[in-house]
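Long-time lurker. I teach an intro course on protein structure, and each term I like to show students one example going from raw sequence to a predicted 3D structure in token notation. This year I'd like something fresh instead of my usual example. Would anyone be willing to generate the tokens for the chain below so I can use it in lecture? Attribution to the forum is fine with me.
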Amino acid sequence: MLRRTGFACYRGGVAQEIEKAPLFPLPKGAILPGELLPLHIFEPRYRAMMQAVRDGDQLIAIGTLHPGNTHDVEGRPLISDIVGLGQLLRDEQNDDGTSDIVLHGIGRGRITQELPSAPFRTVRFDRQPITTDDHPAVTFRLRRQLLNGLASHMDQPIVFDVTARFDVGTLADRIASSLRLAASQRIAMMQAFSSEARVELLLNLLEDPRHGQRLIDLIPSLQDFSLSLPDAKDTSR
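-- Reply from a regular --
Happy to contribute to a lecture. Here you go:
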């Protein structure tokens, strides 16, 4: 049985760090951490990819094709260097050889190398840290920026703690994955590798009244809203 924690897969209680994965490029491809992405796999090369995924770490790197570069002579179109990492959550194999799968977004990676492979592509990547090692002053500033930005979209006063122990980038991802974003917005959010870039992009997205209303719907209580997570690791120290 496969158990998932962060970016490590556990088989038999032994951690196996993931540093490479099959690449699945899509014209409007994006998967955010915490997001579910359903896919229908039908091309022969991606059927072969799925067998490798099943036999391996059950991880797929979702790459975004550069506009206007969907085809080239080698069948390896250009993609953005930031990929979304999707863990295989559901895998239905059909009688005709196709598959219907669901991926669970577990993070991002920055491609460092494309490995020789056929018929599908495989990439090696640097994983985005689950928590940041920013200077405490930077962490505090980003927390205050994000929480103040969220509060500005509430129609009632809310209470929050700017010293609460949570990872800013993770919270920004969680909120973004819950919004009904257009494909281009989801791609932009996936490409935002740093916490600062994600916070800025999320607050810009919330300027859209539709996303602002969705945020209000996500907050169970407007009377006593606190993002204090006492069990979370404090990354500012």
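Some talking points for your students: The CA atoms of residues 34 and 174 lie 6 Å apart. The helical segments are 44-55, 136-151, 168-178, 183-191, 195-205, 209-218.
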